[in-house]
Design goal:
about 325 residues, mainly alpha, Rossmann fold, Tyrosyl-Transfer RNA Synthetase, 2 domains, 3-stranded parallel beta sheet, two-stranded parallel sheet, about 10% strand, elongated, disordered N terminus, binds tryptophan
Amino acid sequence: MTERVGQHREIILSGMQPTGALHIGNLEGALRNWVRLQEQYEMYSCIVDWHSLTAEFEDTSGLKDKVFQVAVDFLAAGLDPNKVAIFVQSEVPEHAELHLIFSMLITVPTLSRLPTYLEKKDRLDSYGFLGYPVLQAADICVYNANKVPVGKDQEKHIWLANDLAKRFNALYGPTLVEPEALFTEIPLILGSDARKMSKSYNNDIAIGMTEAETEKKLRTFFTDPKKLRKGDPGNPDGCPIYLLHRIYTPGAAESIASPCRTGELGCVACKSQLTNNLNDALRPIRERRADWLNRPADVWNVLASGAEKAKARTKVVMEKVRDAMKINYRKTT
Ligand code: TRP
């Protein structure tokens, strides 16, 4: 990051919850894009442990390992700690400070109308969970980030961050950058049971699986339920295996979808082709992953120096925030 000082590059803040070992949905939907973005932007990639606590605050014993696994998968995917600050949210307390200030600028009814809140409020109705998007807005604005790479599901949250920055500026004078979403074309990836791929459904292919585990798991994947044996005509549309072929098999429309439709290609052979292509694509990532796993102290050092780089930035922004609000009491000028 230092070698680029002096250039005025836009700033990106990306965030992900520490769910533990990440899967190929996380890789293809987010990480590959972040790896591209690190070349063009000044980038901060945050593992948002406080956001995880909004749902899982009772048993925190697994959190440290989940943070570690996510950091390893970030590095395995190709995030380069010399180009991007990789860090843990709770190690940069300025996120919490701006969250508190933002919480004054938004009403409870506005927050309680957000779909992400409505979906879970029956299970989860804490003050902290209601404020989830306010904390996310603080994550972004405390860097004065210009862009936030997210999927469409996060649209309202980024809009809220933009709105909070606008409200702050209107009240206290121009201080904060009004951030925008950088929507990523996220390929549809379904899990073994044809629901959205998610670690919590246990229907995922983890980045860190061995090649044999990958093969075994792919064998359990649903395919077109009407195609019972080779020879039966199949429908690749919406088939979880075909959706993966579209990512990992060049020319999948001709080489997979067509012979599936005619019945020439059976599900067993189709899955074994995918296994080979997927394992080939993941091999370099898995090699890097194994390498970082061998030296855990280096992973924690990446997070420590990432937090230092992040703090260098958030300290400057929070100083401006305190100045604008005239709560920088001991400052003489
Ligand atoms: N809400 C995001 C998600 O569920 C995670 C997140 C928290 C985030 N803070 C962020 C994403 C800041 C981008 C920027 O995916």
